[in-house]
């Protein structure tokens, strides 16, 4: 029934990046809250905000830059919880290219994810005053596909990686960490919030929906904390839920371990300071900022306040 | 049957070419790895090796060539690697297992067949409309052509969201994409087929004062049978491609398309290659099935004389 | 109410077309263009009306008017994308694939053995879905247009091959015997009989290949590209929920595709004027 | 060589056919005009065509290519609408007559549907006209018998020789009870011997039934051999240039073609033809 | 009706053609046998065929459908290889003769290449045989003149009537200097008047040139009218059942067809044909 059904749209395929939700599902945490939760896997052509707008899901996971951009586009999404405290996004470069600092990016080729995931990179570069249109003083940007081949093939000098996934893919390909140099957004001071839970603003006027979300966030956070504590079990739960049968255990355990580091600092409630840093980064986008004005009402503590007490 | 030997010959030639290509294609990666494993590699830095072509590097490092055939993360896997992966995932697994390509094949096949059914029915209906109505002929046909110039992978996510917002999920959205790709060859073929009766065959029915529907069932439809089968064979493989394309924006959960994507993302090229070949084999089998049905039907209709 | 309006517009468009199609001038070239145009305009009007009337979120389906606005404003960018994807990617691939298919067809045609061997294997290759081949070519040839051209070349190869092979065989026994009575060898027979006779078939293949070429080049960009190109723009704008830009690119793709197809049809008309279907 | 008189003496039952032929007119064409509009301008296919065909007559149409023979036959069958003039069939318009199933039409080529067996082809008009199964079977058997094709009903057209296919298409036209049989060069593609054979058969059939037959041919001997009336047409615009009533007796062995009377008529037809034939072949 | 004697008297230059006809044999077939292997088993298309054709002769082949006329013509042209027996053309094998451009072959249908103009079609063999441009143009003009098609060289085949196409295909066969003209039912699809006209033209052409002509037809009058020698064939297996040397004079107005001599030969041909014709049409 309406009051207890929740559909969650992920932003990528089934993997330990979303372990908390699968654990909550598998361990019956949702059930214990009386919820009937459907987790929709994502993929390369799924824009979670659009799914939300179309009514295909009640809640979505999204990176905050993308969510705020959607908000400016006229799709009022609101952050109701933020299980990820820390950003896992980084650039990974070959050390033998001689890159040691951001300044050295000039004249290089860098792989970037697009599809709404390019905002952090673009903000960073514009803060550094580096053009993204190529040339001697700018970087040449490649739209990176779904693998790390551009780096391995040396088509790109650097590519975007997540600490928990693509970086591991590079290592799995036989590369030693010493061959690489990484630039974490977190360390560069341009970190933006990742993997928050968002809903449509209108829905928050509906007490039934709010109640549903309160229970959902509570159970999800329970799932996350369980996953952090039991990475191997969590990874296996993710594997059970992976219908492609192509994931392997070692990679998921590693991913879960890395993800645990990112979620560890969060109890689910959005840290307003993090939010403000994210907004500031995005607004600082120079001539072409990701968002043009300070958003309003883009987050609420209402759900987490109720959920965590 | 007469084709077996020629096909085998061509396949052998392609395999040979393939095998020859493996060392140059993989040599850079293999050399990088060999160096990490403390083997002798010339030249001895990756950056220096970038200056050489794959073939040039292979000639300089002949001792590494065998490694190119067994490399775990090849740019071009060797044929036996693909065959091995296919064996493991087709024969070596229970067909209900998520690791079985048979299971994924079925996940892809079901929407393919449904989509093909929808696309074919729609295509035939449109063709009938176009043949019997001047207005439809003149107004719909150009747009049917335009529809095929629209990149489906761009439309697919939107179609899926719109259907999703109507609460339709699972098999059906993929079938719609499959249908979108398969209706066109059917329309084109059936319009040709339904128009294939010559003036004399049509006039014969006029002398009987036959009705339009009698003309359809007794003349136009049977006359279009050969065209229909030709279209069906194109349509079914288009439908399969449509489903695989649609597997990405529907949440790449299972099916050949999901295997290709996930294999690619997690650095398992063999998973992708096996899924790719399995998909092509499935298409070949479906086309073969229709060829058999075609032969039987046309024979019973007395049209397979020569 | 809105639905009623939509139905009314639809009915009006249809009525106009029925009049035109049944009218005495229905074979006039202008009318031939007018009828599908009216059909298209009707669809667009109904679309605009429904989107506005039902207040459809532009993130789901933008109104034709906003797509039109994008087309006007984003001209230079659309042109750059078109140049990257269609001119560099699709056209190059189309030419390479076409020439390769043609060459293989002529080769296969020399012996029945080769034909029997090559056609099924070519059919198998044609069934390789683009979702699988595109990442491989991007991996091999890099993210720029070369990999797109390769994807396109593979996609167009088979339809052109099959049609050319069928065309080269489409000579009557009498036409071939005539050449034999002249004691003509392989090459004169190829150039004076088989190739001209194959033209209608070859064009059939070339026309099918036009739409494939476009789709191939665009879709391959989803798997890696520079920051320009129609596929890049579609995917990126879609991620940014700029659906009007997505549709603007789709409109460009459809226009380019139809123009390409139309151009092929025109060339076909000129080159195969002698064929009954063109008279 | 037997003379016409001798042949006439052999004729045993002249009365019945003569009576039939002398019956009421079945087809009346008055001042028929037909112009086709084409891209290259109008083509005047029929001009001022006047003709009466009596019940039970066998009328041949002969004339150079493009003189309107087929067009006129199609007008009779209501497949073409004259641009001016009147045509009536049994007092009805051709369209009405068609709805009343007045016509059996045999096209120049056999035109059998290749996906139907011989039996299936003959069944086609019967199905369309709604005969019941039993009746269909009975009629198919009867007409197959009539054209000497018993035992071939399960064969497909391509399994038969050209001549047999042609006979099957005649059987198809005979399967339902059309009063008027229209045949457009039915034997055009056959060799002379087969043609002779089929000509004899056709005459026998005509003798057995009461049908009115309109028959287009390019062959002068064929026209003379078969007809009670020969209509010579000439082209540009298509019109009737001569109508010859045959004095030949109704029973006609093949040898009659060597009789002087026969040759006499053939001469007249040939002269009529040559006059109408412009030399731009 | 003029008698043969009267006609012969009109003949002004009988000597030249008679001399040509009495020349050396050009084509010799000895004990020719040809069996086609098909899915349904072997078909014995030619059996024990013996024939000599002298230089300048006009030989017609006539016989029921499937008796091997086309097959025999194709053997002469080296398009088909006999399974047994010997055939020689000018002392060479047919293959060698073909390479020496001995043949002009006219197929049953015109078989013009639709993508070439009439002129282009006639140019085709000239291009293949490597004539230079000027020579090509000269010859095209000459043969177009010969078949009365001047002014049509820029037209495409479909813009011409069937008869004109047929003449173009004859022109194509005449454009290069083949000694032997082989024609397979070239006038099969034409109406009687056009046919008469072309028959006359063909005879004139033959009279003008020294060609040896092999001619397949279904029409008895045509065979008798044209030939110096009529070869009657019969089927299953295909063999020669009669060879008739025509006593008709070489100059033949169309009226000769009504002469008793003509009818006499026609009778003999018809009898020969009927004997060979089994009644399974
Ligand atoms: N549907 C049509 N449209 C235009 N012109 C036509 C059409 N049908 C026939 N004609 C023209 O009308 C004239 C008479 O044609 P018709 O077919 O009646 O001739 P015919 O006497 O039957 O000739 P044939 O002996 O070649 O069959 C011809 O010039 C022909 O080109
Ligand atoms: N290529 C072939 N393969 C098999 N059988 C053939 C082939 N060509 C001819 N035949 C058979 O050989 C026999 C003689 O054929 P041919 O074409 O010489 O006859 P024809 O006398 O020219 O007949 P028509 O008057 O019908 O043209 C026929 O039974 C025919 O079916
Ligand atoms: C088309 C497309 N490209 C990139 C991302 C970015 N992204 C967000 S989460 C994630 C998983 C990392 O392992 C990735 C790649 C996306 N969602 N869709
Ligand atoms: Mg006609
Ligand atoms: Mg023949």
Give an overview of the whole structure:
The complex is a heteropentamer, with one copy of chain A (309 residues), one copy of chain B (306 residues), one copy of chain C (279 residues) and two copies of chain D (281 residues). In chain A, 39% of the residues lie in helices and 16% in strands. With 309 residues, chain A is of the alpha/beta class. With 306 residues, chain B is mainly alpha-helical. Chain B has two domains: 4-76, no CATH class; 101-300, MetI-like fold (Orthogonal Bundle). In chain B, helix 6 packs across helix 9 (171-194). The longest helix of chain B is centred in the C-terminal third of the chain and has 35 residues, at 212-246. The two termini of chain B are 17 Å apart. The mean pLDDT of chain B is 85. Chain C is an all-alpha fold and 279 residues long. Chain C has helices spanning 2-22, 29-53, 64-73, 75-110, 112-126, 130-141, 145-169, 173-181, 186-220, 230-239, 243-271, and one strand spanning 225-226. Chain C is flat, with a radius of gyration of 23 Å. Chain C starts with a helix and ends in an 8-residue tail after the last helix. Chain A binds chain C through residues 44-45, 47, 49-50, 53-54, 66, 69-70, 73-75, 114-118, 132, 140-147, 149-150, 153, 155, and chain C through 57-60, 135, 138-139, 142-143, 221-227, 232, 235-236, 238-242. The site of the ligand Cc1ncc(C[n+]2csc(CCO)c2C)c(N)n1 has 9 residues of chain A, from loops.
Describe the protein's topology.
The complex is a heteropentamer, with 1 copy of chain A (309 residues), 1 copy of chain B (306 residues), 1 copy of chain C (279 residues) and 2 copies of chain D (281 residues).
Chain A: E1 5-9, H1 19-26, H2 29-32, E2 36-40, H3 48-53, E3 59-62, H4 64-72, E4 77-81, E5 89-94, E6 109-112, H5 119-128, E7 140-143, H6 149-152, E8 158-162, H7 166-172, E9 180-184, H8 185-188, E10 196-200, H9 207-229, H10 231-241, H11 249-263, H12 272-283, H13 302-307
Helix pairs in contact in A: 1-9, 1-10, 9-10, 9-11, 10-11
Chain B: H1 4-36, H2 46-49, H3 54-60, H4 65-68, H5 79-91, H6 101-132, H7 134-149, H8 152-165, H9 171-194, H10 199-207, H11 212-246, H12 256-265, H13 269-300
Chain C: H1 2-22, H2 29-53, H3 64-73, H4 75-110, H5 112-126, H6 130-141, H7 145-169, H8 173-181, H9 186-220, E1 225-226, H10 230-239, H11 243-271
Helix pairs in contact in C: 1-2, 3-11, 4-5, 4-7, 4-9, 4-10, 5-7, 6-7, 7-9, 9-11, 10-11
């Amino acid at each position: 029934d309406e009051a207890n059904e929740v559909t969650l749209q992920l932003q990528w395929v089934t993997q330990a990046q979303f372990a908390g939700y699968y654990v909550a599902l598998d361990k019956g945490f949702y059930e214990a809250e009386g919820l009937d939760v459907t987790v929709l896997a994502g993929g390369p052509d799924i824009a979670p905000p659009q799914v939300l707008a179309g009514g295909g899901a009640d809640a979505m996971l999204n990176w905050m830059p993308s969510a705020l951009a959607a908000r400016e586009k006229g799709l009022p999404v609101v952050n109701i919880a933020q299980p990820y405290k820390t950003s896992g996004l980084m650039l990974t470069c070959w050390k033998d290219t001689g890159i040691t600092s951001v300044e050295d990016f000039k004249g290089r080729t860098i792989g970037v994810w697009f599809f709404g995931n390019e905002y952090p990179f673009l903000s960073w570069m514009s803060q550094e005053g580096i053009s993204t249109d190529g040339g001697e003083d700018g970087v040449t940007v490649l739209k990176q596909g779904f693998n790390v081949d551009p780096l391995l093939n040396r088509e790109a000098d650097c590519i975007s990686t997540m600490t928990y996934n693509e970086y591991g893919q590079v290592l799995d390909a036989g590369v030693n960490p010493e061959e690489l140099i990484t630039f974490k957004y977190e360390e560069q001071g341009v970190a933006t919030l990742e993997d928050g839970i968002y809903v449509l603003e209108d829905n928050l006027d509906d007490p039934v929906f709010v109640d549903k979300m309160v229970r959902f966030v509570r159970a999800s956070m329970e799932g996350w904390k369980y996953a952090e504590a039991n990475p191997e079990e969590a990874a296996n739960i993710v594997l059970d839920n992976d219908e492609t049968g192509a994931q392997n255990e070692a990679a998921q355990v590693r991913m879960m371990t890395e993800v645990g580091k990112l979620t560890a600092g969060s109890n689910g409630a959005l840290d307003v300071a993090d939010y403000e840093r994210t907004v500031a980064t995005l607004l600082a986008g120079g001539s072409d900022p990701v968002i043009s004005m300070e958003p309003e009402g883009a987050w609420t503590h209402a759900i987490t306040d109720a959920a965590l007490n | 049957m007469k084709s077996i030997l020629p096909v085998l010959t061509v396949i052998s030639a392609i395999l040979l070419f393939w095998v020859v290509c493996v060392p140059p294609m993989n040599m850079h990666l293999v050399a990088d790895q060999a160096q990490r494993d403390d083997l002798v590699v010339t030249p001895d830095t990756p950056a220096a090796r970038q200056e050489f072509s794959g073939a040039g590097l292979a000639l300089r490092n002949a001792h590494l060539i065998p490694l190119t055939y067994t490399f775990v993360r090849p740019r071009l896997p060797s044929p036996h690697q693909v065959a091995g992966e296919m064996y493991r995932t087709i024969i070596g697994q229970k067909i209900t297992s998520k690791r079985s390509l048979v299971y994924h094949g079925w996940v892809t096949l079901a929407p393919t067949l449904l989509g093909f059914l929808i696309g074919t029915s729609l295509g035939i209906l449109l063709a009938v409309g176009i043949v019997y109505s001047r207005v439809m002929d003149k107004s719909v046909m150009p747009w049917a052509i335009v529809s095929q110039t629209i990149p489906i992978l761009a439309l697919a996510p939107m179609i899926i969201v719109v259907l999703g917002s109507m609460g339709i999920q699972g098999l059906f959205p993929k079938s719609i994409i499959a249908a979108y790709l398969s209706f066109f060859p059917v329309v084109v073929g059936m319009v040709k087929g339904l128009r294939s009766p010559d003036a004399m065959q049509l006039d014969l029915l006029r002398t009987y004062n036959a009705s339009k529907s009698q003309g359809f069932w007794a003349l136009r439809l049977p006359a279009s049978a050969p065209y229909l089968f030709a279209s069906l064979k194109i349509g079914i493989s288009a439908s399969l491609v449509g489903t695989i394309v649609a597997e990405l924006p529907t949440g790449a959960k299972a099916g050949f398309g999901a295997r290709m994507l996930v294999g690619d993302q997690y650095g398992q090229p063999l998973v992708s290659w096996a899924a790719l070949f399995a998909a092509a084999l499935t298409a070949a089998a479906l086309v073969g099935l229709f060829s058999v049905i075609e032969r039987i039907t046309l024979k019973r209709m007395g049209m397979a004389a020569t | 109410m809105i639905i009623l309006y939509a139905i009314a517009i639809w009915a009006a468009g249809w009525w106009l077309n029925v009049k035109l199609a049944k009218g005495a001038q229905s074979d006039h070239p202008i009318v031939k263009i007018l009828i599908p145009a009216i059909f298209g305009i009707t669809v667009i009007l109904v679309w605009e009306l429904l989107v506005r009337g039902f207040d459809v979120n532009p993130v789901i389906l933008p109104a034709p008017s906003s797509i039109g606005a994008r087309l006007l404003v984003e001209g230079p960018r659309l042109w750059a994308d078109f140049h990257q994807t269609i001119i560099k990617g699709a056209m190059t691939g189309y030419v390479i694939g076409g020439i390769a298919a043609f060459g293989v067809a002529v080769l296969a045609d020399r012996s029945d053995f080769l034909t029997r061997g090559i056609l099924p294997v070519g059919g198998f290759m044609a069934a390789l879905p683009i979702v699988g081949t595109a990442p491989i070519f991007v991996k091999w040839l890099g993210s720029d247009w070369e990999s797109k051209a390769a994807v396109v070349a593979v996609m167009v190869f088979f339809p052109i091959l099959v049609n050319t092979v069928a065309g080269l065989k489409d000579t009557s026994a009498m036409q071939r015997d005539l050449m034999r009575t002249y004691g003509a060898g392989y090459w004169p027979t190829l150039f004076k009989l088989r190739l001209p006779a194959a033209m209608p078939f070859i064009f059939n293949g070339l026309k099918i290949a036009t739409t494939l070429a476009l789709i191939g080049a665009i879709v391959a960009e989803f798997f890696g590209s520079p920051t320009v190109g129609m596929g890049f723009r579609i995917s990126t704008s879609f991620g940014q929920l700029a659906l009007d830009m997505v549709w603007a690119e789709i409109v460009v793709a459809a226009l380019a595709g139809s123009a390409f197809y139309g151009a092929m049809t025109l060339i076909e008309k000129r080159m195969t004027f002698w064929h009954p279907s063109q008279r | 060589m037997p003379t016409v008189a001798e042949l006439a003496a052999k004729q045993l039952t002249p009365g019945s056919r003569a009576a039939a032929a002398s019956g009421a007119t079945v087809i009346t064409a008055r001042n028929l005009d037909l112009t086709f509009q084409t891209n290259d301008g109008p083509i005047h296919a029929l001009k001022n065509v006047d003709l009466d065909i009596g019940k039970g007559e066998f009328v041949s149409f002969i004339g150079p290519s493009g003189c309107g023979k087929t067009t006129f036959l199609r007008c009779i069958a209501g497949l073409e609408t004259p641009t001016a003039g009147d045509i009536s069939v049994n007092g009805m318009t051709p369209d009405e007559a068609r709805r009343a199933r007045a016509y059996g039409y045999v096209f120049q080529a056999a035109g059998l549907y290749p996906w139907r067996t011989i039996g299936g082809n003959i069944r086609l008009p019967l199905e369309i006209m709604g005969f019941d199964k039993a009746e269909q079977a009975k009629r198919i058997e009867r007409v197959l018998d009539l054209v000497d094709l018993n035992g071939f009903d399960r064969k497909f057209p391509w399994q038969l020789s050209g001549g047999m296919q042609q006979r099957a298409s005649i059987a198809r036209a005979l399967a339902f009870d059309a009063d008027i049989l229209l045949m457009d060069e039915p034997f055009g593609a056959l060799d002379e011997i087969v043609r002779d054979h089929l000509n004899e058969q056709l005459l026998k059939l005509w003798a057995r039934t009461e049908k009115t037959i309109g028959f287009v041919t390019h062959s002068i001997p064929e026209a003379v051999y078969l007809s009670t009336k020969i209509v010579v047409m000439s082209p540009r615009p298509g019109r009737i240039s001569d109508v010859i009533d045959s004095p030949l007796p109704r029973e006609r062995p093949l040898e009659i073609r060597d009789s002087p009377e026969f040759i006499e008529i053939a001469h007249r037809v040939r002269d009529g033809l040559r006059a109408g034939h412009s030399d731009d072949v």
